Amino acid sequence: MMDQAARLREIARKRNEHQPQWKEGKAHYIAVASAKGGVGKSFLTLALGELYARNGANVLVIDANLNTPSLHVLTNVNPRFSVRDMLAYRVDDNQIWFSMVSERLQLLANEAPENQMARGTLDNAIFFLEQIRNFRRVFDVILFDTHTGLDSWNLSVLQAAQTVLLVTTPEPTAIIDTYLLVKAASEFMSLDTIQLVVNQALTREQGQEAAEKLNMALGHFLQVQLPLVGTAIFDLSIRQIMQEQAFPYLPLLKKTRFLPHLQEIWNALPATATIQNKEVAI
Question: Cα(129)–Cα(114) distance, rounded to whole angstroms?
């Protein structure tokens, strides 16, 4: 049986075989990742999806979290089809894959696996990405909300993405875990696609300081730096919005401290340059 490093090397090899196909079509892939749970990754994924949709893009958000999927709960939908169904080959020609959660924004939901065997493997990841490739010409932006950490499934999704948004917080343990994830990923993929978001900072300065500490360690040990695309300020109202499953988010974010920082992150992402309407519509 291969150990984890051997499995990841196998992914890197197979990626070179499949990646040209995965990148065909117009849709820009954005993978949202984190090394630690509770950093606000799923909320950020949906909020960015909304911003793209509100500004004229056709958007698909995919719950690629195989461990604790939650996007169907956060958007208050009861999906007829899920990533889990796809991996179990429960697909027919008339299958409705996506749930419309707001104008121009669709969701491919997921369900928690019944057992460990149902979780992501390299073959499952390749099959999944091949299925999603069929929709690259339908959507302008496809966002993947991944589960925490780095494994065969997550690494495959990160490798397929043009942009990897790595979300952390100023908490020291989150910074350490993020460093370890980047170190592990650096052996198997280019880090050029990774951009950093520091979420739940008390001030912009605290977020910038956290990014500087992370990059100091990355520069010293790995000779790399991650560009900081934004710092999102902690706002208690975000937690209330999530608890109430109040979606769409953008109308509720108008009076929060979070919205201007979300707009900054959105403006800094490469996919945003492809959107015709550059005036942010809320």
Answer: 22
Structure tokens at 157: 């999704």
Using DSSP bridges, classify how beta strands 105-108 and 99-102 pair: parallel, antiparallel or unpaired: antiparallel
Is it the case that residue 192 has pLDDT exceeding 50? Answer: yes
Q: What is the Cα–Cα distance from 20 to 226, expressed in whole angstroms? A: 25
Which residue ranges form the domains of the chain, and what is each CATH number? 4-267 (3.40.50.300)
Measure the CA–CA gap between 229 and 235, rounded to whole angstroms: 19
Question: How far is CA 70 from each of CA 89, 226, 242, rounded to the nearest angstrom?
Answer: 22, 28, 11
pLDDT grade, residue 22 (50/70/90)?
very low
On the CB side of 233, CA atoms within 13 Å amount to 15
Token pair of 43, please?
A: 């909320």
Q: Which residue has the higher pLDDT, 11 or 228?
A: 228
CA-derived radius of gyration, the chain? 18
Question: 105, 19, 117, 123: which is closest to 62 by C-alpha?
Answer: 105
Per-residue HEC secondary structure of the chain comes to CCCHHHHHHHHHHHHHHHHHHHCCCCCEEEEEEECCCCCCHHHHHHHHHHHHHHCCCCEEEEEECCCCCCHHHHCCCCCCCEHHHHHCCCCCCCCCCCEEEECCEEEEECCCCCCHHHCCCHHHHHHHHHHHHCCCCCCCEEEEEECCCCCHHHHHHHHHCCEEEEEECCCHHHHHHHHHHHHHHHCCCCCCCEEEEEEEECCHHHHHHHHHHHHHHHHHHHCCCCCEEEEEECCHHHHHHHHCCCCCCHHHHCCCCHHHHHHHHHHHCHHHHHCCCCCCCC
Contacts for 25 with CB less than 8 Å, ≥ 6 apart: 133, 136, 137
